Structure formats: structure tokens, C-alpha cells
Amino acid sequence: MLKSLASVVTTAARFSARTTTGSWARAVEPLGRPALCIPNSATTRPFTRSIWMMRNSGSTSGYRPTLLSSSRNTPSVSCGCGGLHTEGDKAFAEFLSDEIKEEKKIKKHQSLPKMSGGWDIELNGTEAKLIRNLAGEKVSITFNINNSIPPNFEEEADQGQKSGENEPEILSTPNFVVEVTKQASNTSLVFDCHYPEDESGHGEGEEESDIFAIREVSFQPIGEADWKETSYTLNTDSLDWALYDHLMDFLADRGVDNTFADELIELSTALEHQEYISFLENLSGFVKCH
């Protein structure tokens, strides 16, 4: 009897202790993990979602409030290109418009001038190629109008403005390459020519000096676009005068003489001015985003 009573008392004591310990642990638990149980955490998520809903129209509503719309100080966009438009761009576009009008006023040729001597012309952007066939020979001349304006032009223009004189005429004097090809040959005789700044002739005692000069001469394979460096190249800087004169006469017999050189300057100048105006128009359209 006494053993049964003692067992009941012990069991009651253990149950009481377990209940008390569990209640204390649950009471302390919110203090150990506040981020999971505080009421503010439950109210933060709906507010965040409400911002998203205010910035994006729902599937059942076409309303888009402007409360949270961005109002940054960016230049206005006047077209649909999405590009940047500033007051500087506007002033730049106005300047280009005036510049284009002035360049068109002073444009000498509405179309490119023709070359005498039966030369055919092929254009590829800023590059031009003149072709002429003579009794079994093909003569082709290639030049590019890029960087063909003499670099000392700006200095001459400044001097002209200071003296009150008219501005000097802008002339394009490009380097040009002459290729002479015979039907029975697989190579071309190639002349690298240029316009000397002093326009002095290579020969001595000439009545009329040459306005162009030969810089280099070489044999190159037919159809090669680039100059083959492994082919021997004759530089004319230290060349015998008699040999140089014969080379110039060889070109003159095929229509490449002072008359041709003058006409090439006129053609190149017209082409350069045409491409310059086209560049200004493209630049204006780019700035305006047209």
C-alpha cells in the first residue's frame, strides 16, 4: 500500500516539473527569435507588395498611379529613337544646317567632272578608280580622297584672313597608284605617285616642271589588292635622272601627264567636297536622331 502511494506521488511530481519547464520555454522563445514573431514583420510584406502593385497595372485594372513615378532631370526626347538630346545637340544641329547650306552654295560641280582621254571611272565610297585600255594594255589608276587636303592649308587660310585677302581654294591632291598591265603578262608595273608640296620637277633644266612625281616603282602580281612587300621596290629618291625621265615619259605615253594630273586634282577636289557635304548631312541626321 505504501509502495503504491509513493509511486503515485513520484509520477505526479514528474508531470508537474515537465509542464512547468515547457511553459517557461515557450514563454522565453519569442524573446530569442523576435524577427519571426514580431507583428511588424507581418505588416512589412503587404506594404512592399503594395508598392509593386502601385508601379505596375494589374490584370484587372488599367489604373496606373503617378505617386511613385520617376521624375529625374533628364533632357526631353523629341523622337522615338530613345537617344540623348541636349541643348548642345540642338545648337550643334543648327550649326550643321547652316554649314551644309554654305557648302552647297560654293559647290562648283553638281556632278563629277569628266576626265579627258577616255577614262572610265569606278567609285567605291572615298576610293575612285580610273581605267583605260590602249592597244593590248590596261592602265588603271586608283586614289582615295581621305587625307588628301594638304596639312598646311589651315596656316595658309589664317594668313589669308589676317591680310584681308580671299581664302585660298581648297584642293585635293591625293596620292595615286598607276598600274600598267599587258595581256601576255601575269604581273603589273606599278607606280606609286604623289603631288610634291613644292611642285618642283625631278629633272633639271625643264621648261615645264612636273606637278606630280613618282615615289616608287615595282612589279606586282595581277589581282593583288595590297602591295606585296616581297617584290623588289625601286625608290626614286636616289635614282638616276635619265632613268627617272624615261619612267615619266612611259607614263606620259599612256596618258598620265601634267594635263591628266591637273584633271585628277579637279576630280578629286569635287569628289572630296561631295563626300564632305554627305558627311555633314549624315552627322546632322545623327545628331537630330533622324
Topology, element by element:
Blueprint: H1 2-32, H2 34-37, H3 39-55, H4 87-105, E1 120-124, E2 127-134, E3 137-144, H5 153-162, E4 176-182, E5 187-194, E6 213-221, E7 233-235, H6 241-252, H7 258-288
Antiparallel strand pairs: 1-2, 2-3, 3-4, 4-5, 5-6, 6-7
Helix pairs in contact: 4-7
Structural features, described:
With 290 residues, the chain is an alpha+beta fold. It is built from seven helices and seven strands; from the N terminus they run H-H-H-H-E-E-E-H-E-E-E-E-H-H. It has helices at residues 2-32, 34-37, 39-55, 87-105, 153-162, 241-252, 258-288; strands spanning 120-124, 127-134, 137-144, 176-182, 187-194, 213-221, 233-235. The protein has a seven-stranded antiparallel β-sheet, with helices on one face. Helix 4 (87-105) runs antiparallel to helix 7 (258-288). It is elongated. It starts with a helix and ends with a helix.
Which features characterize this protein?
elongated; 290 residues; 7 strands; 43% helix; 7 helices; alpha+beta
**How far is the N terminus from the C terminus?**
108 Å
Instruction: Tell me the series of helices and strands, N- to C-terminal.
Output: HHHHEEEHEEEEHH
Query: Whole-number average pLDDT?
Result: 75
Structural class: alpha+beta
Supply the number of helical segments: 7
